């Protein structure tokens, strides 16, 4: 159980973090505070004017004083209205600026993270976090200036009432902390509920996002009922939590109204007593009571805002979780650009596991020569894709090194590393764009000739010509308009068009029929002659003609050689391809 000091230091750290976060927006907050304050001047001066009207004009029947006071009132009213309009316009612009800034910071941070971090968060939850940008912007651009204005108004009201009648002010000052005590108690009670509500909202978004993206399998396996029930269960849980939160909202609302009215009632009784004793004029009494009513409204609104702050504090903390976390895979200090690939990729004593205690490699040492057509084979789960991930530095080895032409990948600029290598994987991962956009993704200048060349390498010329808009035909979400084999061909074209020094095909042609696959590989070999291509496959026909094959045998060792050589020297290799020979 956390101790009280740990709790308070946690609260302090959170507070410090929030202040640090708000500091770039301090100018905007200040401008909005000033305008908000100016626009409330009329309300602040109103009761004092009433007192002057009653004591110096009405009771004395003084018409010139009445006109003077009315002119002051009209000027104040116009000034407040204009300030209010300016406040609205500037608030709107500021909110847009803050939202843009926050969204930019959040997205930049998100994309800077490594794959392991991103995979550890569910997509739905991340989407929910991004949607919180709006709330955080409102918090900064609307709520903070409003709280500052209200607090300032409260102090001024206390100052004026003190000037008019210190006894009633003292009573108000003594009674006000009741609002604070109530607020602190409610914070303690409601914070865990708001935290649960946030998590439940995130779970709902996650569930919906996951189901919608896997509709095909839901339909095929008739999982609609199961998914619907699962969603409704989460929704009911969410509603239950919201009702729990709402109960506290009602308690908050009732107790605030009760307190405000009780304070007002007590002070008006005191005031009445002083009038009867002849110690207070009717004008002063009216003014003080109007100010007390305003103070009551301000205290109620501040305590509602306090509840809102507790609720949105949870959202803020979740937001900070992303922008405070440090990306682990970034350019090392003094990292250099990786030059054209000339010699070899070497993995030296590499140890790696995705999860603690589950090693994929304990001491992997292997080297791949440049300029060759290299094949990698081995049983499922032996770590072929993992090795590619490590070469691309999508993950970092826990021990040992991976070097390209003698430069450790950790010391290479990430941009240059991923420029030199392009990978096409088994899962094609296409975007809801046109065929052309999917192939040329991220490249600025691709000529028609280059596009046609890769389309002919993937043997898709005829197919694309028959489409309604040729290469500009949209392929829909998850490329649902295409067969798996064509999806793989587009993903392959996307890697080839980048003209990488090292092209990696990780089961990238597994869904393509063997005859077409042979033609594609043949065209690729001609196109990339003298360049490095690493092909990972379970299909013998795909890797049989490689210059060198690296076979991960069942004992975790790597055997190397051309196909015929391996057949002759390795019974494991022969056994692995027994059915395909
Ligand atoms: N993101 C991940 N998180 C946790 N474990 C993972 C992750 N990716 C892979 N693994 C595990 O790491 C091991 C190696 O996986 P890897 O994908 O490299 O195998 P592979 O040789 O490519 O297999 P296949 O031939 O089936 O593609 C497997 O045990 C797998 O379960
Ligand atoms: Mg794999």
Assembly category: single chain
| Secondary structure: number of strands | 10
The proportion of residues forming helix, as a percent range, comes to 55-70%
**Global mean pLDDT:** 89
What strand order characterises the main sheet? 6-7-8-3-9-10
What is the CATH topology assignment of the largest domain? ABC transporter transmembrane region fold
CATH class term of the largest domain: Mainly Alpha
Strand content: 5-15%
> Count the helices. How many?
22
Number of domains: 2
Relevant CATH superfamily of the largest domain: ABC transporter type 1, transmembrane domain
Question: Over all CA atoms, what is the radius of gyration?
Answer: 35 Å
Structural class: alpha/beta
Unreliable stretches covering 5 or more consecutive residues:
none
Quick rundown:
It contains 22 helices and 10 strands.
Written overview of the protein:
By secondary structure, this protein is α/β, with parallel strands linked by helices. Helices cover 65% and strands 9% of the residues. It is elongated. Bound molecules: adenosine-5'-triphosphate (ATP) and magnesium ion. Adenosine-5'-triphosphate binds next to helix 13. Residues 119, 354-355, 360, 378, 380-386 line the site of adenosine-5'-triphosphate.
